[in-house]
Amino acid sequence: MSEITPELVRHLGVLARIQLNDDEVSRLTGQLDAIVDNIAKVSAVATADVAATSPPIPLSHLFRPDVVGETRTHEQVLQNAPDAADGRFRVTAILGEEQ
């Protein structure tokens, strides 16, 4: 039985604020179901006795000096903001929203 249903995909679309048409819901339902199935298969064989793999080439971390460069003023940063108040970006509240 499939874990991913069209209703779940529509709900996820609402949560992500993405408008999905029926074709997209149908396509994404199959794709997400395949992803969930593959994750379940990997999880079934990924046990503590299976060693983790490492990259085939050695990795090295490259660091640059942390130097303060030219910065922008508040006015420059906020000049293209859709909404600003008191020198800050103004955004829609997202906590406590009802779905």
SS-based class: mainly alpha
Please give the alpha-carbon distance between the first and last residues.
27 Å
Tally of alpha and pi helices:
3
The arrangement of helices and strands along the chain is HHHEE
> What number is the mean pLDDT?
87
- Low-pLDDT residue spans: none
Sum up the overall morphology in one term. Answer: flat
Strand order of the largest sheet: 1-2
Plain-language structure description:
With about 100 residues, the chain is mostly helical. The chain has three helices and two strands. The longest helix is centred in the middle third of the chain and has 24 residues. The two termini are about 25 Å apart.
Brief rundown of the structure:
This protein has helices spanning about 5-15, 20-45, 75-80; strands at about 85, 90. It has about 100 residues and is mainly α.
